[in-house]
Design brief:
about 160 residues, alpha/beta, Rossmann fold, about 25% helix
Length: about 160
Amino acid sequence: MPDRQTLILSSQSPDQSRQIAQALAPQLRAGDTILLSGDVGAGKTHFARSVIQASLTIPEDVPSPTYTLVQSYPGQWGDIWHADLYRLSSPHEIEELGLSQAFEEAICLIEWPDRLDGLAPVQALILTLTSGEDQNHRQLDFCWSDPRWNDKLKGLADV
């Protein structure tokens, strides 16, 4: 496996975080998984929602999947699965939810990926969001080892 690479971005507002997500969305294809980590309120759902909304051909409301665990959407570049695993009680539920298959066949945005208990795809992009010096500032740390992310993340620093 190649060495891990990182890209660290600073967002000064929710709007700038949305713009970063919107710039990434057209690069995503089936089999791409983004693992979103960060404290409660760090912006994981906001980032995922922004990717999804940028990917839809027909705009629709994108609720948090906190209670449903998984929401899926027909995107322009493939089906999108948005999962919030915070309430997951066992890694065995990953199979019941169909996530293992979705990792191969859909674009997956996974909040609270620590609940996957080793079942996360090794080629996934890891995005850690951290609150900054004020309530609107976020640091976005992208980390990956799969070379396919190199081109997909090009240009994000210019947003």
